[in-house]
Design a protein that fits this description.
It contains 16 helices and 28 strands. With 539 residues, it is an alpha/beta fold.
């Protein structure tokens, strides 16, 4: 069994070649067409000397070409390096250097930044400019760094699949967003990535799938129309897309997040399943639906992960789409999915995201002991996963040793997410420990306070940080994007929260900002929020 991402995709191609697989705007391609283009690009890269283990940067928004690029890299057993298209020159230089890329596939609109950075990296010898779906007629110069166009790269290349055998041990690297420091490359074996993020373990039954199980289902069941809303440069959307490629479904992608365009796409294509990143997408989406003339009745399931999907926003969605299923998922780049919760009116009444722990996931106590979920209800610990876990961080053995630890005969990934144990094998996610606020010896998890604040009618979005305090060590501070003109005072907010949170968790200061700092997927940028809170302390 290869259990390699490229092989799993090819299995689906072999059974449903004429089925649509990727759609961007009005453009739709079949499995066979996607395969042919990926083979052509793979042959071009191989002819330029790119081979097994070599690193290839992909610097692009969501597009058909982005998917082709990923598959081409996997086909020749090279390693795709996800490049954040929001990076500035210094950040690109860091990533290109740290990741050791030898080739770069970039959208042509980024050519000026590529021209400023590529010559500084001697190993980067092959550069291909793909069309930008939002600016397809861009003619930015490629000559200064020796780049070729997408059409030039594919021209004359074979569309045949004539590659050698692959291995489940081939590396898949996912660079984290770096909101709490420099980006880190999380190294996965292909099989392990597939197990925990590509559907290789059934999330509900914990059954481990065999190599052809997903492609067999592609023949036996009707395809779904799925729509991951986040950029493919991040792991969640990439994993969602790959999972559905393996199973014969149609994945719709959008180059940018536009709430009204999302609803138009859902209605025009009968989208059944959407993936989004918490409130950052859920709130503008439900408000656009309320203000527009949309149907949305095709939606069967709404899935959220990687950020808070708060109670008041969930309630609006559930009231609007009473027949849809809603799920929250927890996990990290270092663990894959660790738990999923089917949400309903009852289980969203708690303080945070409540999920059932998935296979191989545990909660660790302060001494790294595994806590028995049945006898430790109410205890707080760190989420961890064993079994299919990453190899480590690329070129960072020190951080690898801190995150990937050996406990007895098993190796665990412990990225630092805290959770409280609930009854029935469930946990409430509390947030990343690095963001935990210590105020007077008490621990405050920002996401818990953020969840409560989002129920206030004048709070559109919020991040909570800890500021230095002479008396308490740290003081809880809220950075708020208001819904309208009304800016509640600290005391008004504290009064609102008193029935929901302990006194030490209540914010002691608030800073109002036009927009909460978040990544393209909606993930919180806590360092920037802390900077804003420090500048606005006392407001």
């Amino acid at each position: 069994m290869a259990l390699n991402i490229a092989d799993l995709f090819e299995h689906a191609v072999d059974v449903v070649p004429d089925r649509p697989v990727i759609q961007v705007g009005e453009r739709k391609v079949t499995y066979a067409e996607l395969e042919g283009s990926a083979n052509q690009l793979a042959h071009f890269l191989a002819a330029r000397g790119v081979g097994p283990g070599d690193h290839v940067g992909i610097y692009a928004k969501n597009s058909v070409e982005h998917v082709v690029a990923l598959l081409a890299v996997f086909k020749i057993r090279a390693v795709a390096i996800n490049v954040n298209y929001r990076y500035v020159e210094a950040e690109l230089n860091y990533l290109f250097d740290n990741s050791d890329i030898v080739a770069l596939l970039h959208e042509r609109t980024y050519a000026p930044l590529v021209a400023a950075t590529a010559p500084k990296h001697s190993a980067l010898e092959t550069i291909v400019a793909m069309p930008d779906p939002t600016a397809p007629d861009d003619t930015s110069d490629l000559g200064s760094f020796g780049g070729v166009t997408w059409d030039e790269a594919l021209s004359g290349q074979s569309a045949e699949r004539d590659f050698g055998e692959r291995s489940p041990d081939d590396l898949y690297i996912l660079y984290t967003g770096g909101t709490t420091g420099f980006p880190k490359g999380v190294m996965w074996r292909h099989e392990d990535f597939w197990r925990v993020l590509g559907g290789g373990i059934d999330f509900m039954t914990a059954e481990r799938l065999e190599e052809y199980d997903q492609s067999k289902k592609a023949v036996e069941t009707d395809p779904m129309v799925t729509f991951p809303l986040s950029p493919l440069m991040h792991g969640g959307a990439q994993a969602a897309m790959l999972m559905h490629l393996f199973a014969g479904h149609l994945t719709i992608l959008a180059p940018k997040f536009d709430p009204d365009e999302v609803w138009r796409t859902i209605d025009a294509n009968g989208v059944q399943l959407i993936f989004m990143t918490g409130d950052a997408m859920a709130r503008p989406l439900i408000e656009a639906y309320a203000n527009g003339d949309y149907d949305g009745s095709s939606l069967v399931a709404v899935a959220s992960s990687a950020a808070i999907f708060s109670r008041p926003v969930k309630e609006r969605w559930m009231a609007t789409f009473p027949n849809a299923f809603f799920t929250d998922s927890v996990g990290a780049s270092e663990t894959g999915f660790q738990g999923t919760g089917l949400q309903d009116a009852e289980n969203i009444k708690g303080e945070g995201c409540v999920v059932s722990l998935g296979p191989e996931s545990v909660v660790l106590g302060e001494g790294n002991e595994i806590l028995d979920l049945a006898t430790n209800v109410g205890a707080v610990g760190r989420l961890a996963r064993t079994g299919s876990v990453p190899v480590g961080y690329y070129k960072d053995p020190e951080k690898s040793a801190k995150t990937f630890i050996q406990l007895g005969d098993a190796r665990y990934s412990v990225p630092g997410d805290f959770a409280r144990i609930e009854a029935d094998n469930k946990v409430t996610l509390l947030g990343r420990g690095s963001n935990c606020i210590n105020t007077g010896g008490e621990k405050v998890y920002p996401e818990e306070v953020e969840m409560a604040l989002k129920a206030h009618p004048d709070v559109y979005d919020v991040l909570v940080v800890g500021l230095t305090d002479e008396n308490y060590g740290q003081a809880v501070s809220a950075v708020i994007q208001p819904r309208g003109e009304n800016h509640p005072t600290v005391e008004e907010l504290r009064t609102f929260l008193r029935s929901q949170l302990s006194g030490y968790k209540l914010p002691r200061s608030v800073t109002y900002v036009p927009e909460i700092p978040r990544s393209a997927t909606g993930k919180a940028n806590y360092p920037k929020a802390k900077e804003l809170a420090t500048q606005g302390v006392g407001v």
